Amino acid sequence: MSGISLNVKGLGVRYGGTGSSFFSRGEGVWALKSVSFSMCAGETLSVVGESGSGKTTLLRSLLGLVRPTVGEIELWGRSLAAMTDDERLAVRRRCGYVPQDPYGSLPPTLTVLGAVIEPWSIVRGSRGETRERGIAKAEELLLELKLPEDLWGARVKYSLSGGQRQRVAVARALILDPEVLLCDEPTAMQDVSTRGEVLDVLIARVRRGMSMILVTHDLLLARQAAKQALVLYRGEIVESGGTDELFERPSHEYTRSLLAALPRI
Ligand SMILES: Nc1ncnc2c1ncn2[C@@H]1O[C@H](COP(=O)(O)OP(=O)(O)OP(=O)(O)O)[C@@H](O)[C@H]1O
Ligand SMILES: [Mg+2]
Question: How close is the Cα of 8 to the center of ligand 1, in Å?
């Protein structure tokens, strides 16, 4: 375990409206309020919370896709806000992202293989890599994620189910061997068996040193996939800690209600 790769200090994001006080009246929605946490290289963090609690906004802020209204985000010791566009792009390429919506986020006109290779094609020149190596890596990932081979040449737009699209999105996010993977509900459209397959792929990467932030509604997955968790409620962290401790002895009422809602056998 090495130094801090991610440090979030007092992050607040407001959509619409003006001013930077959480208490300012009027228009706008504070999607995140006073969010602070840090992560070291190789660590794993699950982010859970009800719909609208700010999970996607958090991931998008970390990637520089949403600008913080207040607070600061540091990646590998550098303030995201202070970076030049080139520096931000370089940092962005160290992060993989599995967006929440596998329908809107994949390039619809590409084939499955084309969609997975696309990030590789963009950077391979600067990394001195070949297209053939990219194809081999993409095929390896699709095999690992158990996407049927007869779909590899099919167009994303016409031929894939939601769960299959999600697996393509995971492969696409992993092809550049990210140091940090940000996943937004990566298994929401999987059935029980394919969910396990996706989880195995993610865990194998974590064992090889990748850090991961996993957003999920699935508390079992949150516990299986990560050592640490934080619970968001209306844009604020209401509880955080080790996943085992947190889900066995939740202290906040909201976390208790999440756990109470789990189906029991
Ligand atoms: N682009 C936007 N413009 C305005 N408001 C937004 C925008 N994106 C999100 N919000 C609002 O910010 C809040 C947090 O949204 P966010 O998408 O981060 O929640 P979430 O926890 O990811 O929810 P879900 O579990 O449904 O995906 C919500 O109240 C939402 O309405
Ligand atoms: Mg979301």
Answer: 19
